[in-house]
């Protein structure tokens, strides 16, 4: 039985011995077989959405610019403890008429490799609200978006109530994301205590 010839008089690639497959094509095959890391970048909530979710009673928000001097920064660092890399931070006063109902923080911390954008509120007494995840860019660990994990922050007050693994439980497979977001909340609580706590 003869071998069917193509118009160029060459054997089709799938019928050639591997040693005769052109090198460029073999490279393509190797790339196709290589494992590919899938990076999932997703935005789940806008800043406006987070404002309404965290402080639904507020009728307007006033952005606050925080400028820490050296002494204030040292105090925040001492209160907050070890921190992952942060990128941007924005803060607003949540107002109902002329009454302050709390402060909203939108922060970014690194998860494993990429940044996580999250929001949390602190009321005038220092109590935290439910944490909201605005953007998650990692390929793993997105379980921190679960309602059960985020609600662990709700109603807690002070550093002694937001200890990782003691008060804020870890999620298997999302350890770095859980730990870094919790550490980030420590930073926000420290900022609130040093810079924003209403005078008693």
Compact summary:
It contains five helices and six strands; from the N terminus they run αβαβαββββαα. It has 200 residues and is α+β, with helices and mostly antiparallel strands.
Secondary-structure map with pairings?
Blueprint: H1 23-33, E1 42-43, H2 47-54, E2 60-64, H3 70-80, E3 86-96, E4 99-110, E5 115-122, E6 132-136, H4 147-150, H5 175-196
Antiparallel strand pairs: 1-6, 2-3, 3-4, 4-5, 5-6
Helix pairs in contact: 3-5
**First-last Cα distance:** 97 Å
Percent helix range: 25-40%
> Biggest sheet: strands, sense, closure?
6 strands, antiparallel
Low-confidence stretches: 1-39
Radius of gyration: 26 Å
Question: Tell me, what's the shape?
Answer: globular
| Overall residue-averaged pLDDT value | 84
Biggest sheet: strand arrangement: 1-6-5-4-3-2
Number of helices: 5
Structure in words:
The protein has 200 residues and is of the alpha+beta class. It contains five helices and six strands; from the N terminus they run αβαβαββββαα. The chain has helices at residues 23-33, 47-54, 70-80, 147-150, 175-196, and strands at residues 42-43, 60-64, 86-96, 99-110, 115-122, 132-136. The chain has a six-stranded antiparallel beta sheet, sandwiched between helices. Helix 3 packs across helix 5. It starts with 22 loop residues before the first helix and ends with a helix. Residues 1-39 have low confidence and may be disordered.
């Amino acid at each position: 039985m003869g071998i069917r010839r193509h118009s160029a008089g060459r054997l089709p690639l799938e019928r050639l011995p591997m040693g005769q497959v052109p090198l460029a094509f073999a490279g393509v095959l190797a790339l196709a077989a290589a494992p590919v890391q899938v990076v999932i970048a997703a935005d789940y909530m806008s800043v406006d959405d987070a404002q309404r979710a965290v402080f639904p009673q507020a009728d307007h928000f006033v952005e606050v610019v925080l400028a820490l001097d050296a002494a204030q920064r040292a105090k925040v660092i001492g209160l907050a403890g070890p921190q992952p890399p942060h990128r941007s931070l924005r803060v607003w006063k949540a107002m109902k008429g002329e009454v302050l109902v709390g402060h909203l923080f939108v922060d970014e911390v690194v998860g494993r490799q990429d940044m996580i954008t999250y929001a949390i509120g602190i009321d005038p007494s220092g109590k935290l609200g439910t944490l909201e995840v605005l953007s998650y860019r990692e390929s793993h660990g997105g379980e921190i978006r679960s309602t059960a994990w985020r609600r662990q922050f709700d109603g807690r007050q002070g550093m002694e109530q937001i200890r990782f693994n003691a008060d804020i439980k870890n999620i298997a497979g999302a350890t770095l994301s859980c730990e870094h977001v919790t550490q980030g909340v420590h930073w926000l609580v420290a900022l609130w205590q040093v810079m924003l706590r209403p005078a008693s």
